[in-house]
């Protein structure tokens, strides 16, 4: 497994999941994955990505504007909308850190019944990444 730290300039990925900094060809970091998590969550709940458009340039413009609209014909819990809003932020520094996703009220509400039904009384183990020391602590494993 290779570990990479710092900011990147390459653009790769599925168009609908690219964050504003990538479509605007700016440097980016690991927070692009937080953005993509929010996009996937939206797609799981709605059935399509939030910035989908017929033309690529239209999709780029919607991503750059970063305005999420929820369809009226789909019931989306307020907690899910709150989480998506904290993940899909134009400013990467404002995106909810991954470790905080696990403690978001909607995630805890959704996971609790499943954990209880499965007899799991434990908690979810989290991992930390330290780009300043260029070491990753991934559940006890070093890169």
UniProtKB/TrEMBL annotation:
The UniProt entry, under PROSITE patterns, shows: PROTEIN_KINASE_DOM
Presence of the UniProt keyword Kinase in the record: yes
Catalysed reactions listed for this entry: L-seryl-[protein] + ATP = O-phospho-L-seryl-[protein] + ADP + H(+); L-threonyl-[protein] + ATP = O-phospho-L-threonyl-[protein] + ADP + H(+)
**What Gene Ontology molecular-function terms does this entry list?**
ATP binding; protein serine/threonine kinase activity
Residues annotated as domain Protein kinase = 1-107
Write the record's keywords in alphabetical order, separated by commas.
ATP-binding, Kinase, Nucleotide-binding, Serine/threonine-protein kinase, Transferase
Which InterPro entries does its entry note? Aur-like (IPR030616), Kinase-like_dom_sf (IPR011009), Prot_kinase_dom (IPR000719)
Protein's name according to its UniProt entry:
Spindle assembly checkpoint kinase
Q: Which gene encodes it?
A: IPL1
